[in-house]
Amino acid sequence: MSIDIDTARRVAKLARIRVEEDALPALADEFNAVLGFIEQLSEVDVDGVEPMTSVTPQRLKRRKDGVTDGNMQEKILSNAPDAREGFFAVPKVVE
Predict the structure, then answer these.
(1) Beta-carbon neighbour count of residue 83 at 10 Å?
(2) Which GO terms describe its molecular function (predicted)?
């Protein structure tokens, strides 16, 4: 796949970046270099390679998934400018 100047202009417009007319050929060349690198990556044989999220093996810590209220209602509401009946009180904004 090859990117011409018109396609580079269209991509710049879609990305909402201003590119001067004389810089469009260089932008098209950069796009072509990136696409060439991507084509090189597609030639790599990755059969039998497991996907990984890190270069070092990691195991996530597991904990029991339990729902709690935190038991900190008073502590949380202590910073509220106005709290009533255990809830944050806010001014009415819709008439």
Answers:
(1) 15
(2) ATP binding; glutaminyl-tRNA synthase (glutamine-hydrolyzing) activity; transferase activity
Give a yes or no: residue 24 inside a domain.
yes
- Beta strands 87-88; 83-84: pairing state: antiparallel
Domain that holds residue 35: 5-42
Please give the tally of structural domains in the chain.
1
pTM metric for this prediction: 0.50
Residue 51 DSSP one-character state: P
Question: Is residue 59 assigned to a domain?
Answer: no
The model's pLDDT over 28-68, given as tens digits with 9 standing for 90+, comes to 999 999 999 999 988 999 898 888 878 887 888 888 888 88
